[in-house]
User: Fold these one by one.
Assistant:
Number 1:
Amino acid sequence: MVRSATALCAALMAIGFTGCDHSDRMPVAKVTGIVLYDGDPLPIGSVLFNPLNGGPTAEANLEADGTFQLGTYEESDGAVLGKHEIIVVAHTFPGGAGLPEEHINANQASVSLIPEYYSDFAKSGLTAEIVKGKNEIKLELSSKEPEKTPAK
């Protein structure tokens, strides 16, 4: 009986220790930034950075002053190194301030505060290169449609 209890404790300890192993994580670098819409800070929304060479995405919610700190494995640990495509999503409800409780209590469909193409990786046109060290990203969004380049 004592031997089986000892074996059980050893097994539980082994599981606990392996659960803390982060060796499968890709290296990340700190990323802070700001999202501007027509020159003004975007006060609500989220950003999502998707690495083009594979790996986990990084995300952040915008602060009221438009700033953000990306997190991949933890809330603000940064993003994996390399080139990323980026989307920005900013939805609220008519007359709302974009607060989470408005989403829960709303009986209306949400509306985007920015053009919808910014929430599509294929259309946003937003990219960034994340390098070792600290990265500061400025995302400048516009209400004007981007100019279309003719196909060649």
Number 2:
Amino acid sequence: MSLSIDTSMTQGSIYAQLQNMQRQMNALSNAAAVPVQQALHRPLAEIEPVQEGGPSAGDKIGAFADLLKQAVENVNTLQNDAATAQTNFDLGDRSLSLADVMLSTQRARISFEAMVQVRNKVVEAYRTISQMQI
């Protein structure tokens, strides 16, 4: 299973993308929780063969890093847009309504909270992996 996000979606669906990524991370975490002894006693026929020619681990790590960077940039953009809208509204810009300003502010807040939750899951996964016995 690999983590994937559809980059063709709009910024409004960032929260949905982050929820999907969190579900995938939970599934990976649950799969990693299988005791090592059970994995060692599985018949060889059940073990999936390594596929040659597929993306390497370095490519997957790079893609994941790019994905996280893009998510952080999207959250930053939403926060900057919300701050600009709020400042323009405070200065008397009549093209913006209070509802528009509040929506952009809440959109930025929700996307930030979702990003923090993803960060917490990544840190939790890192701690779990670092505590595994080799």
Number 3:
Amino acid sequence: MMAEPGSNETTAEPAEIAELVAEFLAGGTAGTQVERTIEWVDTDAAGHQHNSVIMRFVEAAEARLFRKAGLNSYFAIAPRVRHEADFRAKLYFGQDVTTAVRVDAVGSSSMSFSFRVWGHPFKERGVVLAAEGKFVTVCVPHGAESSAPWPEEIRSHLASTAAT
């Protein structure tokens, strides 16, 4: 199944990636995945993905997680206070990619996440783990200068949900 030109949908994901994603998401309290294709704008002069595209894909998965839960209030109060990424393999123009994000822990005012980005089989290569890492967000209510406890709506949802 091919995606329409210009869409963010990719071809069907290989079973191997589905297994890797399921195993990864099982380690968290909540999680989700997104599929994208590396576009020309996502590459650098070396011909592979620019490091910033990994963070865009991670943020897209994070946004999907909270939108699907109806927790749109999260976005305005959750700045990142820590980010780390290990780049493991190159991704190329036209290559399909799956990004998975999971919530590892929810503290009173912080939330820890992990992510992995896999490149689908492409040309002569099989599935590759392209990047993995972690990030932390902190609840900072609108107008506040410091952290505060997560709203009950967010805490209770994350406590009751399983990775999807």
Number 4:
Amino acid sequence: MSGPARKRATYEDLFGIPDNATGEIIDGELIVTPRPSRKHVYAASALEIELGAPYQFGRGSGPGGWILLVEPEIALGENILVPDLADWRRDRFPGEEATNWISVVPDWVSAKSCHRAPFERTRSGRPASMPNMG
């Protein structure tokens, strides 16, 4: 016999998490994790700086034309994800949206859960714990 059905998390549930935490909604479950460590934030910031100059601004021999964001809130269906870094080609990035989250699937993502611990992968190669992003 199974227990009572759990209530699916909603965006409103994110407002109830502590200020020193990050909340995501994955497959209806509210996932609350501590804010990234200082070393982690430093690494993500350095990566954004290194990639931003050539890819976002076209400096050096870079292509330009990308939007790079650190810890953006991305809505994919009912899932709310907060990857370390996400990038969109400028022509695919939504301008104004009525919500805080970004509703367009990024072209590239560096997800924090990828470097926490090894975990099972699906046949597609993506982590089993991450929803399909495309």
